[in-house]
Amino acid sequence: MTVEFNLNGRKVAAVGAPQSPLLWALRDELGMVGVKFGCGAGLCGACTVIVDGAQTRACQTSLADIAGKNIATIEGLSGPVFEAVVAGWTRAQAPQCGYCQPGFVTAATSVIAADQNATPESVLAQLTNICRCGTYDAIRDAVGLALETLRADARKAGGAK
Ligand code: FES
Ligand code: FES
How remote is the CA of residue 13 from the centroid of ligand 2, in Å? Predict the structure, then answer.
């Protein structure tokens, strides 16, 4: 079947069996290689994308399920939340081998975008990704830094009114 959906703001089509994982279409057909294959079983989150605003495991999402939906991959993320997350990740020096990090950054961007007033604890509770390098302490710091940046920006914007 051919499935049409929006990918990073543009309309695309992917061809495959209805139950074929979205992950294959993104990587093999559409060149979104920032979306990683890790466990293939919905556990590690290396394949995390954002579907209509929600963090989603692309290895567990079928092509048939995404017709007409809005998919964002790390390649297409932008805006203040993503920039704050990336800056937090950079300052905290979170990546080690880096393989899992696009999934973490994508998941964190989705979670924080949904509630910029969230506590670091509540954001971390929603990050169920796995890192084989054990970067969890740095990721905790990165999330805290991203939230601080967004709050500082909000205060500045409020003060400027
Ligand atoms: S590859 Fe999808 S959750 Fe691990
Ligand atoms: S940084 Fe290596 S798997 Fe997470």
Answer: 31
